[in-house]
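Field reference: "sequence" (input) and "structure" (output). Example, Copine 4:
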Amino acid sequence: MSDIYESAANSLGLFSSPCLTKVELRLTCKGISDRDALSKPDPCVILKMKSHGQWMEVDRTEVIRSCVNPTYSKVFTLDFYFEEVQRLRLELYDINSGHNGLKEADFLGSVECTLGQIISQRKLTKALLRPGGTVGKAIITISAEELTGNDDYIELSFSARKLDDKDFFSKSDPFLEIYRVNDDATMQLVYRTETVMNNLNPVWKTFKVSLNSLCSGDHERKLQVAIDFTASNGDPRNSCSLHYIHPFQPNEYLKALVGVGEICQDYDSDKMFPAFGFGARIPPDYKVSHDFAVNFNEDNPECAGIQGVVEAYQACLPKLQLYGPTNIAPIIQKVAKSASQEVHTKEAMQYFILLILTDGVITDMSDTREAIVQASHLPMSIIIVGIGNADFSDMQMLDGDDGILRSPKGEPVLRDIVQFVPFRSFKHASPAALAKSVLAEVPNQVVDYYNSKGIKPKVPSEYQSSRSFGP
């Protein structure tokens, strides 16, 4: 990890903000080692969240007796903040059969991740790190469901009659498990009832489950980055330049990039981000370009993670001649072209977010207005972060908060897709505060687009009744 990237990333922290939604997490483990030669482990998972630098216990699963591949019925419900990095740690313990506490428990391993990573992948599988930090054979799978409101629950009651008697000396002790069929044909436990002892005609207690847990489907956010390399930023070799690269202190471009990008990257499954520049003369012929790949690979402008974008940005600076003018319509049109291709797919599962970092007043305002109006019909949002102390008053018009943006021909935007924030307003605030400000409108913009197109969340594939149940 580069020092400059680490310096910017380490400045991120938790930021108090209203909860966007609630998330349900479900856990399964496989391949837990038998620490006791005479019996199998009694595993339990402890969920912790990092707050103010400390790991705090949030909740824990039930203890499943004598099991090396547990599927827990316990559901963790967490408040989810889209614009924050919420770090989680899951610790696996073998609980002593005579105690349910941790005092006599054996620590078996742990994993760390962010809540955003789980939500973006919907199902995250990781190997447990054993005591000492070595990778063990045991794995944990975390499945996530976003809840849209407290009323999205269904109440269920079940009973059974004339069940088979599986015990020799008494009647069976039945319990009921409800599974969901996932898109990949795997089965996910939704709920496990209590056990009714010694009864072949059980009546289980009424219970509630979220409708989300019985459904599936989500939309992926694809982040693309555009950086202003016009001459108004100043010579990068000069310490007064907005593009000056200090060995350890990130400039404002890097702070904004990392502050927003670290949040967005959790919602992009492949973590590969196209990064573009505009307003510079580029090699080999040094003609001005307003939509060149920062890595100079026009066929594949993607960078591996936000760190990859930072490294490509640092590597390209010495090779550029900062020039001008500040035209952003070409980069909006480039991303809109990708978004328009997504419209023609059946489900339009990808939603594009264009992050533009710029230091000056744009010079192609008419073309930019036209490009935004056309883009408002597509699955994309535009985030503009103003760097430096220029007059950004024209940017407020693009934002649309003070009125409906219209093209030069008078055509209004179909929906508000632009959010502008001047970085100077967050110079003395945490990068998490910047991320909150620029990303707060994105969730509603995503929902507005899919609602306008009548596109509903995906539902599981039709149930196939070929699942065999063992004894």
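Confidence is low (pLDDT under 50) at residues 11-17, 459-471.
The chain has three domains: 3-155, 158-205, 220-452.
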